[in-house]
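Fold this: Brevican core protein
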Amino acid sequence: MASALLLLLLWVFVPTVVPEVFGPGDGAGNSASLATSAPWVSSGGGLGGGHPVPVLLTASLFSHPEDVKALQVSIPRHPALEAVLAGDITIPCLITYLGPQPTAGTAGRQAVLGTPRVKWTFISEGKEVEILVARGDRVKVSEDYRLRASLPIFHQRYTNASLLLTELRPNDSGIYRCDVQHGIEDGHDILDVKVKGVVFHYREGSMRYAYTFAEAREACARIGAHIATPEQLYAAYLGGYEQCDAGWIADQTVRYPIHTPREACYGDMNGFPGVRNYGVVDPEDMYDVYCYAEDLPGEIFLETTPDKFTLEEAAARCRALGAELASTGQLYAAWSAGLDACSPGWLADGSVRYPIVTPRERCGGALPGVKTIFLFRNQTGFPDALSRYDAYCFRGKEGHPPPLTPQMLPRRDQREVLGSLRAGVRVLGGCWVLAPAHPRAKSRDVPQARDGIGIPACSPCCDIAIGQGCFGPSRSYRGRIGMPCMVSVLHDDISR
C-alpha cells in the first residue's frame, strides 16, 4: 500500500513537458513559447508559501493529445472583407504549427513534400470552384482564374498562403476557403468577400444618344454616380453585363458590352462577344453614358400608399420622413448590395425603376437588375409626372450629408422657394427640377413638372454649376429662348 501511494505521488509531481507554439514567423523555435519545460510556480501561501506547486494538472488528467491539432489555419479578417469592382484584394491565410515545424529536404521531391499543400476554393450558391493548388514553388491555377490569382508570399514563407486576386468582377462575391495539408495534419478557414460597385447604362428620358462627353460626365454626377472607367466596364462585362447601347466612358472612348452578338449589336467584333469600342471620339458627338456607383452612405427604403404617388407627392412624402427621393445611382448601389423589391417607384430624376435580385414572374423578366419603366419600345420616355407609383426614398447616415441629386422643390403657390442643395450654395426660384433639358429636344418635347392642380411649372433648360451660377440655355436652345424660370445661385454659408 505504501509503495502504491509513493508511485501516485511521483506521477502527480513529475514535471510535464509542454510543446512550444510556433507562429507564422520562422518556425524554427524562435517564437516565444507558452510554457517552459518545468511547469512550476511559487506560491506565496496556500500550500506553505514558497513551495513549488504543480500546474496543468487538470489538463494532464482530462485532455488527450489527439484533441489538439498540430497545424492550425486562420484568416484574421472575420466576419467579411469588402473590395471594389475592377480592383484587387488580398485574402490572408496564415499557417501555425503547434510544435516543431516539419523540415524540408534540401532539393527535389523531398523538398516539395516537406512543405504544406495549399488549396484555395471559391463557394457561391452552393457550388465550389477550385481557384489554385500550391505546394512548394509549384502552383497550379485553374483556367477561370488564370492571370488573376496568385500566392505572392508563399514561395518565400510557407506559413503565409495569402491569396491575391486581381481584376475583380461582380461574381467574385462569395465565400473563399483556404485548405492546408501537411503530412497527416490539415486545417482550413473561410472568409466572406463582397465586391462593391456596379456599372449601369444611363440616358435621359426623352431620347437616345443625348450627351456630349462633358454632358455625360455631368449626367452621372447628377444621379449620384461617376462615369465608368474602361476597366470597370470590362469587369462588369466579365460578370455577365450586356447592353446594346453605345455610351461614353471616362477615357473619352465610346463602348458597349455584348455577350450575344446580333443585328445592330456587332460593333467592331465581327460577330464575337466582347466590349465593342469605337475608340476616342469627338467630345461633341452624342451618345448615352455608362455610370458607376459604389458607396451608399445611408439607406434606401420603399414608401407606398394604396393610391400611390405622383412625382411631386413622392418627393413630399420622402421629405416628411426626413429623407429625399433616391437617385438612380443610389438605387443601383442598393441593388448591388442586395435590395430586392418588385414595386416600381419614383426616383429623383423623374424616372420609375425597381431593383430585382431574384428574378421571378411579373417582376421584369428572367434576369436580375434594376428595371426601368419606359413609355416607348426604344427605351425612351419617362412616365408623366402625374402618373402614380410608389417612391424610393434615401436617408443618409448621420454625419454624411446627402449627395447632390436631382430634386423637385415644391412650388408653394408661386412663392419663392429657398432650397438648400449643398454647403455653400442656395438656390432661389419657383418649382425647379434639377435636370438639364435634352440638348436635342424641341421646346414642345421638354418634360414639364406640374403642380398639384395640373398647371405646368417651369421647365429646366439650363445646367446648374454649383458655385458658378447658372449656365444656359443649353446649346439647342441658344439664341431661341430665354430662361424658362427665374433661378439665382447665391454664394452663402448655409451651415450658420
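The longest strand covers residues 185-196. The chain has seven helices and 30 strands.
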